[in-house]
Write a structure and sequence with these properties.
about 350 residues; mainly beta; Tachylectin-2, Chain A; 5-stranded mixed sheet; 24 strands; about 5% helix
């Protein structure tokens, strides 16, 4: 029996198959720690950045992995550690990667807490000449003066980059947390928040008895574009727990954005297959583009399910988004087509 288990494990390594519902390991055999992150593609390589969080995993760190097929991941580097100027922060979460063509630099945008106090976030920026190098402190600021943020991500289109953030609101002497979603354009060097493009989905005055808070207040958001339509996906405000994914659509980042609707699942799932939406990565091939939903499963905190990340195909059916479950599947990186795997 032991021989069979070892053989099966060896057979799955390097086979290009995405195996969900299991703990993932890198090509060196070490567990992958890459939650709450982001991914970009450079040539034939996908680079996946995320933070390492879990019981006993302190001080915090941000890791980078690379893959040619989204299944077999090589550990590249711990690109940011809790040292130097980064040691002044109680938390550095939700890292996202950008490549600024104007400067040639790589930028990691992240949640930057105030010094060791676990206060609400500023927007942090780290910079490096190489995607896999050691990133240096770039900047940290609050959008629009003193406003703080919750979860953050980025969206890049050509030479422009945008911050996506769950925003807090100060009204009178009271702070309302995670009360809206906003889009901000970044500076040309991607190191500063420059101007607000959109803010909406406000829940300051929302009646939670009519609309539950996790159906209105959103976090863990990300934007993907298909054709001339933007899709803004987000998770519910439920801490480490999994939630149903919702999305809105628009033809311009400035809006108008549609009302939120639930992301359908096949087969049906009320919590996106026990995940919290993180981001979507398009795999552009010679024949089609496959959109890959990346979901976090914080099983290290919730003790629910196996594995910490889930990759699934996100498809369009009759003009609507649909998330399909596949335990084992793969993508032909040349054509872009996906298929189930035995």
């Amino acid at each position: 029996m032991l021989v069979a288990v070892v053989a099966a494990s060896m057979a799955s390594a390097g086979d290009g198959v995405i195996h969900n519902d299991t703990v993932w390991r890198d090509t060196a055999g070490n567990e992958i720690w890459c939650n709450g992150g982001h991914m970009i593609r450079e040539g034939n390589l996908f680079y996946w950045v995320g933070y390492e969080t879990g019981p006993g995993h302190w001080p915090w760190k941000i890791n980078l992995y690379s893959s040619r097929n989204l299944a077999d991941w090589k550990f590249e580097n711990t690109v940011i550690r809790m040292e130097g100027k980064f040691a002044d922060m109680g938390w550095a979460g939700r890292p996202a990667l950008l490549h600024c063509k104007a400067t040639g630099k790589y930028i990691i945008v992240f949640e930057a807490d105030s010094p060791r106090q676990w206060k609400r976030h500023k927007v942090g920026f780290a910079v490096c000449d190489r995607i896999d190098g050691k990133y240096e402190w770039g900047n940290a600021q609050s959008p629009e003066g003193t406003r703080s943020t919750g979860d953050q991500s980025v969206y890049q289109e050509g030479d422009k980059a945008y911050l996506l953030a769950t925003m807090d609101k100060d009204i009178g002497d009271r702070k309302y947390l995670n009360q809206s979603l906003a889009i901000f354009e970044l500076s040309k060097d991607f190191l500063r928040v420059e101007r607000r493009v959109f803010e909406g989905f406000d829940n300051v005055n929302g009646n939670t008895k009519v609309v539950p808070r996790d159906h209105s207040s959103r976090e863990a958001s990300h934007i993907v574009k298909n054709g001339d339509v933007y899709y803004w996906l987000s998770s519910g405000l439920v801490g480490w727990n999994s939630s149903s994914t919702m999305y809105s659509t628009a033809r311009n980042l400035a809006g108008p954005w549609s009302d939120l609707r639930f992301l359908r699942t096949d087969p049906s799932s009320e919590d996106s297959y026990n995940t919290q939406h993180d981001f979507v990565i398009p795999v552009v091939g010679s024949e089609v583009t496959t959109y890959v939903y990346v979901g976090d499963r914080y099983s290290q905190w919730t003790k629910r399910g196996s594995g910490r990340s889930i990759f699934l195909p996100l498809v369009w059916e009759n003009g609507e988004l649909l998330l399909r479950w596949h335990k084992d599947w793969k993508i032909d990186m040349s054509t872009g087509r996906f298929s189930t795997a035995p």
